[in-house]
Amino acid sequence: MTRRQKLRPQQSAARHVSRRTLLQATLGCAASAISSNWFPAFAAETADKPRRPGACILLWMSGGPSQIDTFDPKPEHKNGGGRLSIETTVPGIQISENLPQVAKWMKRMAIVRSMSTKEGDHSRGTYVMRTGYRPQGPIQYPAIGALYSKELTNKDADLPGYVSISPFRGFNASAYGPGFLGPRYAPLVVGNGGIVRVNGQPTSSLKVENLNLPGTVDVARHDDRLSILSGLEDDFSGSRPGNAVDGHRTAYKNAIRMMRSESIAAFELDSEPDALKQKYGLTEFGMGCLLARRLVERGVPFIEVSLNNAAGNGGSFGWDTHQENLGRVASLCQVLDPAWATLMEDLDQRGLLDSTTIIWMGEFGRTPRINSNAGRDHFPAAWSSVLAGGGVKGGSIVGQTSPDGMKVVDRPVNAQDFLGTICGCLGIDSQAENISNVGRPISVVDPEAKPIQEVIA
Amino acid sequence: MSIRHLLWIIVTTTSMSLTAAPLRADEAPSDDVAQLAATIDRHIAAAWETQGVVPAPQADDAEFLRRTYLNIAGRIPPVSEVREFLADTDPNKRRQLVDRLLDHPGYVNHFAHTWRMLMIPEADVDQQAQVLAPSFEGWLRDKFIDNTAYDEMARELIACRISGNEREGAVAYYRAKEVKPESVSSSISRLFLGVQLDCAQCHNHPFAKWQQEEFWGFTAFFAGIEGDRFGSLSDDATSREISLDGSQTLVQARFIDETSPDWSGEARTRDVLADWITSKENPYFARTGANRIWAHFFGVGLVDPPDGFDESNPSTHPELLDDLARSFATHDFDFKFLIRAITASKTYQLSSRRTDDSQDQQRWIGRMPVKGMSPRQLADCLIQATGGFETSNPRNQLLGGRQVDTQIQALFENQRDSNVDPQSTILQALALMNCQFITQQTESASSNTLSAILQSPFLDMDGKIETLYLTTLSRQPREAELSRLRTYVETKAEEPAPRLSFVEAARSLIQPAAAKNNANKEKALADIFWALLNSSEFIFNH
C-alpha cells in the first residue's frame, strides 16, 4: 500500500482508481499532479531509520540570564546575593544551587565562564550571539540555526533542518531568520513564544501552524486542488522561469511533503508517557525540550528551544531580571533545571547524546552588583555560556572571572570564538563560505575567531 | 442587503472613483514624459545590442494593468476595472491609467509604506520600532498626498527639529534609530546617497572605499542628538564633533566627498548637511532617488542593491542613470513625473514572458522581471480578490490590524516589493493552502467573492470561471485553461458527494438530483478559486 492510500483509509482502492482515472480523463495532467515534476512522491520513510550526521539543540535564554545565579556563583562575595553553590558530579566544580539536576550532568558539560562581548542592548546582543556578527546595515546575516543546519542538513529529509520552538522574536526578529541564505533555510517555527505561557496543557501550542487540512477539505479534495494548481504552475513557470517560481514550487513541494509525512508524528507529544512529561516539566519549555528530542530522533539537525518566562514572574520578561532578580531567576531555573537535565538523560538513554551538542546561552549576562530594585542589569563584559553533549569535552571549565565577577581574568571568549567552538563540536567547517546578499563571500564564522580547542572532544 | 449587492456596490464605487478622478492641472507637460520614456528605451536598447539580448514582446493590456496597479496602487485591480480597461479602445489608455492611479489613495498608501520600509526597516523586525512606524508612515503619507518633492522630503527628515517628548512624524524616524548618531548617519547615507558607510563603523574594510574616519566625520553631523526611543529628546544644534567609536579621538563633521562644510552665519549643523545632500549639484542624491524609483518598478536597480553605490558596484546603464537623475532634478524632484516616464517606456511595458534565453539576465531587462510582493501588498491583494474584509479577531482589532494582515505580514516578512529573488517558505505555503482566512474565503458559505459569483444568474459556467480569473489574475482565461476547467467542473458535478454523514446521506435521498449536482459544482469552483489564489501567477508581481 502506498503512503497516500494509508492517509485515507475511508476510501477503497477501487474508488481510488476510479477517481484517478476520472481525473486523468478530465485534466490530462492529473496523474502527474501526484507523481509529477514538482509534487513529491509520498514514500513512507525516516521515522524508523533516522540518518543523523550530528545534531545541535540550542537552549536560548531570552533576556540574558544572570551568570552569578547559574554557572558562575560567588557565594563568598556580596555580589553572590546570598546564594549558595552546590557540588557537581565533577569534584571541584560548583554551580548555583538553582540547578541541582543539571549539576548531575557536569561530566558531560563544559562551562565557559569568560564570555565577553560588546553589546549590552537586547536587540544588538541577540543579533550578535545568534548570528556571530554585529548588525551592519544591509548585510542580512543568517541565524546560526540556518547556518549550521545548512551544513548538516540531510537533503532527503521530510522535515526542515532548522526548527525553532517558541521563539520570542520581539528583541530582534532578523536574528531568527535565514538572512542571506534565503527562505529555504528559514526556521520552521512552532509555538508562538508568548511571554507568559505556562499552564496545564502546554503541548497544544507546539504545533506547526496550518499543517493540517481544514475540516472541509479531505486528502482527495486537496489532491484535486493540487492538480489544478499544478496545471497553473506548469503554464506560468514554463513561460516565466526563474527563482521566484522555483522558490514557490519548492516551498509547496516541501510543505505538502511535510503535511503527508510520517515525520510530523514528531509533534504528537501526547504519545509520550505521562511520567516522562512530568519529568521534563509541564511547561512550554519542558515540552519544547521533549519535542527537540523527538525531532533529533527524526534527523532534524538544528533545534532551538527558547525559555521566555516562568509562572509567577509578573511583568518581567524572561531572564531580563531588572527587579527581584533572585526570586525570578530561581523560578526560571525551576523550569530550566528539570527540562534540561531530563533532555540530557533522555538523549543519553537513546544513544543520542554523543552525537547531539547542546548549547545554553542568552544574549548577555547580568551585572554582578545587585541594583536598588534587588535586580541585576545588562552586562556583556563577563558572563557564562555552556556546551554539553556530543563533541564536548565534559567536566571542563573555560576562563574565570574576578572574585566580584566584574571582569574576565582568564581566557576571554567573544561571540565568534564561541560560535566557532560549536562548529568544532559539530564537525562543521567554520570557514565554509556563503555568498551574502551584497555579493561578498562570508564564512560561517569569522576567520579571526579563536575556537576553544580545549573543550572540543 | 445581500452580499452580492454589497460587493457590487463596492466594486462599482471603487471603479467610479477611479474613472471620475480629474486629471491634475499642474502635471508636467506630456511631451517631457514621452521624451524621457524614449530616452529610457534608447539606452536600454543600446545595452541589448552590446549584450546580445533579444527583448520580449510588449505586454498585453491585462498584463500591463495588473503590474501597474500593483506597482502604483499596491494591489490588484477590481474586476470591474479589469473589464473596463480591456474594453477601452482609447490608444492613450495606458498613460491615462497611470494618471488615474497617481491620484488614487492606493498610491499614497503604497508609496508611504514602501518608503517607511526603506527608511525604518527596523519596524519589520523589532517590536519597539514597530510602535513608532505608524506615526512615521502617517508623516510620509502627508508627503505623498501633497506630492512633496523628493528633496523637500529629504530636507524635512534630515533637518527635523528634535525636542522634548515629540514622537510624531519625522521625529519617529530618529526614535526608531534609538536616537544614536551612528545609526541615523548610516541610515541617511544609505537612503539619500546610496552609500553604505556602516561597515566602516568599526574598522577599515579592505573592500570598501569608505574608511572609519569618513564614517565618523559624517556621523558628527548628528552628534547633537540625544535621548532614547521613548524618553525625552534634546538636540544641541551647534554640536559638530563626535568621538570615534567611543574612543578619545574626536572627529569633526565633514561631507563624504571630503569637502568641508561652511559654518559661516549661525548655521544649525543638520541644516548645513541637508543643504549639501539635497543640492542639485550633489552627484549622489538625484541618482540614488531615481535609481530607487527605477528599482521599485523593475525590481532591480540600475545600481543594485540600490543603496550600494560603490566603485566596485557600477551601474549597468550609467548614461541612463545620469539622464534619469538629471530629468528628476530638472522636474524639481517630482516623483510623479518620473513614474509617468518610466511606465510610459516600452521597456516597462515588456511582457514578463520569456521568449529567448538571453532574457534571463534580469539586469538587462530583456523582459519584465518577476517580483515578490511586500507582505502588506500580498495581504491587500488577498483581500481585494476575496472580498474578505477581516475584523473578526478581537486581538487584532486591538492592535488596529486586520487578521489577515497580521498573519500574512508575519509570514511574508522576508519578501520585499523590489525583490527579484523572492523565495517562499514552507510556512507561507502552509498558510496559503490551509489557513483559516483562505479556507473561509474559498467556501461559498463564507466567501463574498465566491458566493457573489456562484449566485450570479447572469453568469454561465464559463462566465463564472472567467470571473474567478479576473478577480485573482486580472486576466481572461485562455481557451485551453477554460476548457480544462470547464471539464473539471462538469466531471465533478457527476460525482456523488463524497463522505456523506448519516444525516447528509438521508437528506441526499430526498434531495433533487439538480441540487446535488449544484453542490458539487460549487465545490469544484471553490477548488479552482483556491488553486488560483495559491498560484505563482497570483502571488507574484510580473
Automatic annotation (TrEMBL), chain A:
The keyword Signal applies. Keywords: Signal. InterPro entries: Alkaline_phosphatase_core_sf, DUF1501, TAT_signal. Residues 1-43 form the signal peptide. It holds the Pfam family DUF1501. PANTHER family: BLL7424 PROTEIN, DUF1501 DOMAIN-CONTAINING PROTEIN. This is DUF1501 domain-containing protein. It comes from Symmachiella macrocystis.
Automatic annotation (TrEMBL), chain B:
Residues 270-391 form the DUF1553 domain. Residues 40-225 form the DUF1549 domain. The keyword rRNA processing does not apply. Residues 1-20 form the signal peptide. It comes from the Bacteria. Keywords: Signal. InterPro entries: DUF1549, DUF1553. The keyword Signal applies. This is Cytochrome c domain-containing protein. It comes from Symmachiella macrocystis. The lineage of its organism: Bacteria, Pseudomonadati, Planctomycetota, Planctomycetia, Planctomycetales.
